[in-house]
Amino acid sequence: MTVRSLTSISPRVAPERLLADLVPPRHFRDARFSTYRADDAYPSQGDAVRHLEAVAERLTTRQRGFFRRRNDPPAVYLDGGFGVGKTHLLTSLAHAVGVEDCAYGTFVEYTNLVGALGFARTVEALAEKKLVCIDEFELDDPGDTVLMSRLLRELADRDTALAATSNTLPDALGEGRFAAEDFLREIQALAARFDVMRVDGEDYRHRGTTIAPQPLTAEQVRETAGRTEGATLDTLDDVVAHLATVHPSRYGAMLDDVPAVGLTEVHQVTEQSVALRLVVLVDRLYDRDIPVLLSRVGDAGRPGEGDRLFTPKMLDGGYRKKYYRALSRLGALIDDGRALAEGSVPAER
Fold first, then answer.
1. How many whole angstroms separate alpha carbon 259 and alpha carbon 114?
2. Rounded to an integer, what distance in angstroms lies between the CA atom of residue 139 and that of residue 147?
3. Per-residue pLDDT of the chain (349 residues; tens, 9 = 90+)
4. What's the rounded Cα separation, in Å, for the pair 63 and 72?
5. 46 contact partners, CB below 8 Å, separation of at least 6
6. CA 292 to chain centre
7. What is the maximal distance between C-alpha atoms in the chain?
8. Is domain 16-199 given the CATH code 3.10.20.340 in the classification?
9. What's the pTM?
10. What are the residue ranges spanned by the domains of the chain?
C-alpha cells in the first residue's frame, strides 16, 4: 500500500468552515462534569466543577436580553497548570449548555476567524450563541490580545456568556494566580465581570521536556504507517517546510481523514517560527486524537537529537507556556502511536 505524505495535502478552507468548526474537539466528545475525576488532594478541582455546573444551570434557564443586569451574562476564567483538566471542564460546560448554543475554540482559532471573516462579521456570528468558550487564552502577542479583549467586550455587551482557560507554568504554581493576574490586566474593561476559578493539581499526563523516552525506530514508523490506511509518513524537516506554506487556520483541515501521522528523523528545532507552527499542529492533532508515530535522528532507541524537541532557551522564553503544553500533548499522542505500532488499543486519556 502506498503511504501518502502530509506534505501533499494543501487544503482550501472557506471562512464558513472556520465558524462551523468552533465545536468541542473530538478528543473531548465524551467530556462531562460527571466524568471529571476531581482529586480530593486538590479541593479547587471540585470547587470548579460545582461553579461551572451552576453557570450551566444559569445559562440554560435564563432569558437573554430582557432581564439583563450588571455582571450578566456570566463570565468565568479557569486558571491552572498543564494537564489538570481545564479543557475537560470547559468542554463539559459547553456540553451542559448545548453544543448548538456554544462556540468553542482556542485563542488562535478565534484570531484566525477574525482574519477570515472580519471583526464585525465575527461578532455578529458569535453573538448568536449563548456561550463562547476560549481555550488556551494567550497573552504573548500584544496585537492578538488587544483584538481578543475587544472581541470579548463586544460579545459581553451583546449578552453572550464567556468562559476561558489559560495556563500557569508548572514551576509557577506556588506563586498564586500567576496567569489570572496577567489575564485580568489585559482585559481591563472586562476584568470585573470574570469569576476566576483556580484549578490546582498535577499534570495527569506527567510529561516533562522529553517527548519520547522510548521512541520507535524508523522501520517501525514506516511499517505501521504502511499498514494503517490513510496514515501519512514524512520526515520532520519536510513537514515543517510544508507548514510554512499553509496558513495555521488550515492545519485542522489538513488532517481530515488522517488516522495516524508518521514522523521520522525528528530532531530539535531551533527556529522560533518553526517551533510555533509545530505547536499549532500538535494542538490540532490532539483535538482529533490522531496518534503520532515518531522516530528520532539516530533511531536505534537511544537518546538522540529529537530527545528534546524545543531548545532550553525556548522553554525559558516568552512562548514557554505554548511549548510546555505542546510537549505534554505530543507525549500523549506518541504513546498512542506506540500502542498502534504494537497492535494494542491506545489507553484512554
1. 30
2. 11
3. 679 999 999 998 888 888 899 999 888 999 999 999 999 999 999 999 999 999 999 999 865 554 444 447 899 999 887 778 899 999 999 999 999 999 999 988 898 899 888 999 999 999 999 999 999 887 666 778 788 888 998 999 999 999 999 865 444 433 333 456 766 676 776 777 888 888 988 766 555 555 655 679 999 999 999 999 999 999 999 999 999 999 888 999 999 999 999 999 999 999 999 999 999 999 999 999 999 999 987 644 444 455 689 999 998 887 888 888 899 889 989 999 999 999 865 544 4
4. 11
5. 38, 40
6. 16
7. 66
8. no
9. 0.78
10. 16-199, 206-341
> If you search the block for the grid coordinates 463586544, which residue do you land on?
154
